[in-house]
Fold each of these.
Amino acid sequence: MTDTHCPYCALQCAMTLTPSGGPLPVSVAGRDFPTNRGGLCKKGWSSAELLGDRGRLTTPLVRGVDGELHSAEWDETLDLLAARLRQTADEHGHDAVGVFGGGGLTNEKAYQLGKFARIALRTSRIDYNGRFCMSSAAAAANRAFGIDRGLPFPLTDLDTAETILLLGSNVGDTMPPFVSHLQGARARGGLVVVDPRRSSTARLCADGGGTHLQPVPGTDLVLLLALIHVVIAERLYDRDYVAARTSGFAALRGSVSSWWPERAATITGVPAQSIREVARSLARAESAYILTGRGVEQHVDGTDTATAAIDLALLLGLPGAPGSGYGTLTGQGNGQGGREHGQKADQLPGYRKITDPAARAHVAAVWGVDPDIIPGAGIPAVELLQSAGLPGGIRALLVHGSNVVVSAPNVATVRAALDRLDLLVVSDFFLSETAQMADIVLPVLQWAEEEGTMTNLEGRVLRRRRAVDPPAGARSELWILAELARRLDAPGTWSLEPIEVFDELARASAGGPADYSGLSHALLDTGIEAHWPFPPGSLGTPRLFTDRFAHPDGRALLVAVRAREHEPPTAERLHLVTGRLLEQYQSGTQTRRVPELVSLHPALIVQLHPATARRHGIEEGGEVRIENDRGGLTAIAELTGDIRPDTVFLPFHYPGTASANLLTDDSVDPHSAMPEFKRALVHVSAV
Ligand SMILES: Nc1nc2c(c(=O)[nH]1)N[C@H]1C(S)=C(S)[C@@H](COP(=O)(O)OP(=O)(O)OC[C@H]3O[C@@H](n4cnc5c(=O)[nH]c(N)nc54)[C@H](O)[C@@H]3O)O[C@H]1N2
Ligand SMILES: Nc1nc2c(c(=O)[nH]1)N[C@H]1C(S)=C(S)[C@@H](COP(=O)(O)OP(=O)(O)OC[C@H]3O[C@@H](n4cnc5c(=O)[nH]c(N)nc54)[C@H](O)[C@@H]3O)O[C@H]1N2
Ligand code: SF4
Ligand SMILES: [Mo]
């Protein structure tokens, strides 16, 4: 029996894997743990399927002169790869080699990948899929609090809340066991869900559970400015807290003065009275939380929207107060740790800034290199991918843990960009759609085949444990990076052991915002609760901000933000919102292989309102064409009164011609470089 955590999302539900005599090597059982209380969702329950033979990669693949991928030996593949990387750097400079990481990698792998990019490849061109996920929330939290830990409190703190304002998150589908933490607020009628769809989470508000606000997509910033307006105009804010713990109040007050609820109602579609009531109920509550998800963050103004949510929380005196707070719900399994250890274009391990000379000196000393050889800040994901094959752009790309030809915005242009590369290398355990385009594919270890650590949505460091032997032929990413580093004559040490890489990561993080220096695999194995920062001798930090925020003056910053104008929908052009279905995970590389998960939605569906369908001659189960300037696709109509009539919803889990990202916009947020995944304008028609 092996105690570990789920391979998928950031809730990191605890599970026990037991060797089974059946067709799959292990059976899965939920295990009691504060985040999941023994519960698992369908994806967790069926995760052992991933360990069966479902097209698992077991040898390196190299594209031959015939244009096909062929099995190859490890040694010759790595020799070839190292030679091509050297050649690319010699001919076009170090920055011609790019690295794209993922928030599903363990801390150890994420750390080693960042180090490999900086001192083995000497490239600044590294970024990762967390840019598509947490970057707006991270930018907002860093700006307001001076630190970014998704939930600065344990999840179980929510259990006793009186009011919870949940903006743009559908945990009912995306983290089902999370719902148990909303039940307290729901029982008190205090659950407020903001979503253009009556999602499974919004349905929890029915029957006295609370309030569902159903705004026009992309108008949450206006809604939040109006909530702030009411809180200030009606003097509902916590004056002592604002005076003692924040700065920036005067500018904030000025910025919301014209956002009276009636004006906001015309833009958001949320009645002015509802805005007033929600503001008052938040202010009245003894214990209140404000939480944000991708629905409000994945926009060109996502950072400002998350900032407004934080402003509201600060005015109400929530962050750091007992039984109250603000948090963002991190998505990927290691979405939190993945943004702390150096995969991000501007970061070094420990959530340090790559531009900070002291941070560079500290990390260089741990790596055993001169700080001058560490490159400066790189470029964020969308720009990195789009630069492929262009002058000054990357010519070779190593992808670890992302399926960008499904999940990146405006994906037709990303597919074209990858086609321009001289060399695409994908490490994966399955032949993802991105791997199908690669020149070299390297088979790596997955979840239950490896040791390591993950940091969940509460900033709690967890042990991932090996329960089964990997197939002969697959290799750990630590091994691959070490072998390449050796062939590239890289400085530094390249351990193959997660336990040792963790110790090095811990040293590199010492003194940084995300300080892991008091942790080790051995300590984690004792079962301690390990919320970072965790310096030596500490007991960890389940709750941040109880005394001070992380800015030098100890105060949180209230930031005045402005709403921008969006093009409104018309009878002809509807809002497209994209997101998730319960039974599929991300680009679907993993979950599309599990028959019981595929059975419910075998093909792409589009949700639309019956009135909208009628207007366009669309019937339930019929084929719908959805198009805009960027592209088009066909989906099966799922009619539902749960969505606004001006809005359609597509999940993004499907590849090829069924990819929702054929329609999404790659314009990015100026602060976070987050693309606009959650709002596009489209035409729909019956096929
Ligand atoms: N089943 C499943 N679970 C997952 C994942 C998965 O792929 N599948 N992925 C994991 C990851 S990486 C992440 S990041 C999380 C994401 O978790 P969530 O943030 O919960 O997921 P989404 O479905 O992307 O978006 C949530 C909701 O935002 C709403 N929304 C869209 N546009 C707007 C808007 O403009 N305003 C508001 N207020 N709401 C809007 C959508 O209707 C949707 O119901 O899920 C994690 N869990
Ligand atoms: N339209 C639209 N697009 C979106 C979103 C949206 O809401 N709407 N959401 C965005 C968000 S929040 C996210 S997080 C991204 C996610 O999208 P992706 O980055 O594509 O994420 P995954 O599908 O999880 O891809 C992970 C890939 O890496 C592999 N993998 C898993 N673990 C490992 C590992 O340890 N090592 C290696 N080498 N490979 C591994 C998996 O098999 C899979 O092929 O999508 C973004 N795209
Ligand atoms: S909620 Fe997330 S962590 Fe829990 S079982 Fe489902 S996918 Fe796994
Ligand atoms: Mo995500």
Amino acid sequence: MSKSYLLRQLPAVHDVVKDISSEVSGKPEKEITRAVQDAIKHWRNNILKDHHAIDLKTDIRSLVKNSAKSKLAHPTDQIRSLINASGIVIHTNLGRSRLSEKSVERMSETARMYSNLEYNLEEGKRGSRHDLTEDLIKQVTGAEAAMVVNNNAAAVYLILKALAKNKEVIVSRGELVEIGGSFRVSSIMEESGAELREVGTTNKTHFFDYEGAITDKTGMIMKVHTSNFKVIGFTKEVSSSELMLLKKDNPELIIYEDLGSGALYPFQSEGIGDEPLISSVINKGLDVVSFSGDKLLGGPQAGIIAGKKNIIDILKKHQLARVLRVDKFTIAALNETLQSYMNEDYTEIPTVRDILKTPDEIREVVWRLKRKVEDHPSFIIRILEEFSQVGGGTMPDVKLPTFCLGIKHPKGAEYLARAFRNYQTPIIVRIKEEEVLLDFRTISEEELLTVEDAIRSID
Ligand SMILES: *Cc1c(COP(=O)(O)O)cnc(C)c1O
């Protein structure tokens, strides 16, 4: 009964348009009408879904008005900045890595001015954009040669297409992964025209499996980092250094490893995960490796390819390299990120900094905020020990000890999470057992005031 009562309170579109048009002056009538229609639809859905959460005395017309005004001020169908309080550092849905301040500055300067993107300043003539990234990548990875493409999926595609088209590529069945729902090794292989030759089983693949699968049609052995899952128990995989032994009898064979995330910082020696350093993989003498720019590396979206010079030369010359090339902003941001690694200024890189934050540092911040907001009339607020995640399909079994602000609200956790999401700077939280958790690992110092304001403004 209360449901139909609430539905009847939904206002007519033209009434709300009339109400708010003077307050949102400057917006075209069409845009206002669309925002009001969306707001009415939104509140109708809310009533249908969970009318118990809405007080019968609520003024539905002003809710609709506020939603429409907020939508006009902060369109949700355009890209918006938000605060990630989920504690997942590399959150693929929230844009993966934040960039360092230096990267951001370099990007905006590159946007504002002309640049030497494809211009050789020494010779005063046309240059190549590859030259702007190659040296830095070579220095931080120890590779002979390197190049950058749009993302790691593009890198995998280019490598398979340019080096293994119409040939067989041997992959362990334990490594035929799907990442993020849209990247499947087997599908990308099919697209590239390379033929997949599966060996071994899901949990065990031996050296002799690879060895026995090599024929004169074999072009490559591909190893894939099983980023987002772990096979535990009765398992066996063959390391890339063992695979290198196969080159003795098959000198033409290309050994390629898709490293997925690829660490340039030794997280492993800090006791965080077992991600190998890219330089140590390159050091084994593999022909080619690829990894993402915006996962553990903490840079812009990019696919970095590093390896033997003769291999990289083939890739650079392939037509697809032009199709998959990166723009000047990516190059600017990547330059600065890699420069931070070169200078060993690791904490300039937000992704690295946030993964390395200690529970003590985080607790100090949560305490400070809790003291400021604990008098909130309708919240029950506490501090609790929890775990953050690295995210980005990286180190799925690693739990980073952290501290969270736990907030309970009489209207429930879903209501509260939505209120945080609808704040002018949306705040993305996590919910655990009817409690909203704000994980301060992924909230930066500059964002604290906004979080405090949001907590105060929600009732
Ligand atoms: C993430 C990942 C990819 C895809 O990389 P993008 O940069 O997201 O395109 C490919 N392979 C592995 C193993 C990955 O972990």
Amino acid sequence: MPSTRHSVCALDCPDACSVLVDVDDNGRATRLRGNPRHPVTQGFLCAKVTRYLEREYSPDRILHPRRRIGPKGEGKFARISWDEAIAEIAERLRATAVEFGPESILPYSYAGTMGYLNGSGMDRRFFHALGASRLDRTICASAGAAGMTDALGCRYSIEPEQFRHSKLIIAWGANILGTNVHLWPFIVEARRSGAKFYTIDPHQNRTGRAADRHFGIHPGTDAALALALMHVITAEGLEDRDYVDRHTVGFAELQEKVRPWNPQRAADLTGIPAEDIVALAREYATTRPAAIRLNYGVQRSERGAMATRLIGLLPALTGAWKDVGGGVQLSTSQAFYLNRHGLERPDLQMQSPLGREARILNMSELGQALNTAEPPVKALVVYNSNPAAIAPDLNAVHKGLRRDDLFTVVLEQFQTDTADFADILLPATTFLEHTDAYYAYGHYYLQLARPALQAPGEALPNTEVFRRLAAAMGLTDPCLRDSDDDMLRTLLDTSHPFLEGITLESLDERHFIRLRVGEPFLPFAEGGFGTPSGKCEFHAETIDFEVPVESRAGDPELLARYPLELISPKNSGSMNSTFGYRPEQDAETGQLTLHPDDAAPRKIETGDPVRLRNDRGECVMRALVSPVVTRGVVCAPSVRWPKLAQGGASINMLTSRRLTDKGGGPVFYSCLVQVERLD
Ligand SMILES: Nc1nc2c(c(=O)[nH]1)N[C@H]1C(S)=C(S)[C@@H](COP(=O)(O)OP(=O)(O)OC[C@H]3O[C@@H](n4cnc5c(=O)[nH]c(N)nc54)[C@H](O)[C@@H]3O)O[C@H]1N2
Ligand SMILES: Nc1nc2c(c(=O)[nH]1)N[C@H]1C(S)=C(S)[C@@H](COP(=O)(O)OP(=O)(O)OC[C@H]3O[C@@H](n4cnc5c(=O)[nH]c(N)nc54)[C@H](O)[C@@H]3O)O[C@H]1N2
Ligand code: SF4
Ligand SMILES: [Mo]
């Protein structure tokens, strides 16, 4: 009988959709649909995942374990059995730990799946029990998390469903139509009731083109804009006096701090005219409810944490948190107070041969970790990630991955650039094929998915691979033998009130359950900030502003050689590098948008091949000349598969190893380059 099964989209996307899988008599899926009952999914999926069955049943899936037979990076492999693969990995890891110490082993993973078990479950237990190096998972959001925590003492956000009540919505470094499409229907609803929708972005992408107003800001200058908005709000007495008095600390000092930030000063830095800044400040402070959708674009620059913090302070000045449909949304993930300690078992490090907490290596500095760390990294285990495409300063990363004395294991679904560097390559299941529980960073529903489809070939879930490795290495802690359901029960074993009453049984029955955050969730309507005082603490003494070194106002010597600001934001048709093998995806990520005023002196026209370069590297793309980018900015949608690009080089050959002001994040969008036409 044809049937419909439930799943959850596991991709690294705020929407975390509830998915329905139509299955035919033979257990083969015929269609994926958005669950109409889920309040945020609302019955539709994005274009890329609507087509996910092509990926699921692709002849290019990795179906069996493989051992490398050619040089590293070439991608030549021979099939081996699971027993051989596990035995060989166990033996190599054991020998490496004995010779160089367990910290010479490094796991490397990110959010290929947002599932708890396959993302941070048995893998963490395994590496903790070994005493392997720990990985600081900073590649995406850590600067923003640090900035928001500085602002609010925690990271609660307003929820998508509330946007329908807003009267002014600002997408600040947020490409909603491209990366967060399930927020859009709520914005459409708000606009039908008269709301205005503005975007603040150096690139007027699809979202910006659909806005009532677009503010084309210079990259990395958002803090200056936020300071000037505060200047106008406080100078004109537009703050919410009652809210400020009752729920904030340090207003007088803040007012003093922002006094020098007159609109003209911010205009010079941001490129947004002073009168527009004044008008925006007035409108923002006097429109209720006012919502800011701040996504992660702002924090991928050198001063990204400070910018996030200052934007995060705005609703405390205007009292926007009091309103349903008012406040800021960056991420909702913090409210998922599950038992991560029990899931990940960091305490196992103490019983490991290391006997203490292992060192932490920052994933955004993978190039340094592989080339210069002491003690050296001798074994690398990669899963849920494609570092050979997505990491900054990619030439250094490739150099490290090519080392002959590095033993590399990769768990993958597809033959990515990273897979090409593997010594042993293991076939991984997709989210349609394994059990997992899912948090979200764009809504407040916890979800559970059971396998909807049978795994093809010999593909295995990450959980099972690490279970087998633990057994082969003679690791004895009983938690290393836990089943997926055992791990789920541990994960749900928490006394936090937001999780009250949520059990494995109720999740199995209902598939998604709203956290008990209240409805609507108004985290700071009555104060309740995550600070010692419970108030929003402005801490004006720690507010400062610096322009990024790599920007038009930055290092003049660098600017003379590399006069264009490169941003490499998300593509619309993929998920970072996940669908990079699709030809139309390769075309999208192979295109560089330049402003006509920057193209003309370089004699570049649409369709021309162009070379981008800086001191770190170069790559070749195809030009699209258009005023949708701010003058002086070039935009390369990311992330392309390097091996599909000319010379094996994509945009991350140019991005910097520098880290953000806080949080240790990468500065993908603070990057100076030169562009020239290729003849
Ligand atoms: N289709 C699709 N969806 C995705 C992804 C994908 O690759 N493709 N990736 C997923 C992931 S991993 C994440 S983290 C989220 C991210 O989702 P977003 O944060 O929305 O994505 P970004 O493209 O990183 O940045 C958003 C916007 O910030 C702009 N921007 C760049 N620099 C600046 C700046 O200095 N100031 C301002 N104001 N704006 C700036 C960019 O032009 C972009 O339009 O999306 C997720 N969803
Ligand atoms: N230039 C530039 N670089 C960027 C960014 C940018 O905006 N510009 N964005 C950055 C950001 S925000 C992020 S989050 C990172 C993303 O970096 P990654 O998390 O590495 O991103 P993906 O390209 O989504 O790769 C995920 C991989 O995991 C695999 N995978 C999926 N599910 C599973 C599973 O269950 N098991 C196993 N073993 N594998 C699985 C997929 O096949 C895919 O190859 O990229 C960063 N890099
Ligand atoms: S990628 Fe995002 S929008 Fe698309 S189906 Fe998955 S969760 Fe939904
Ligand atoms: Mo991300």
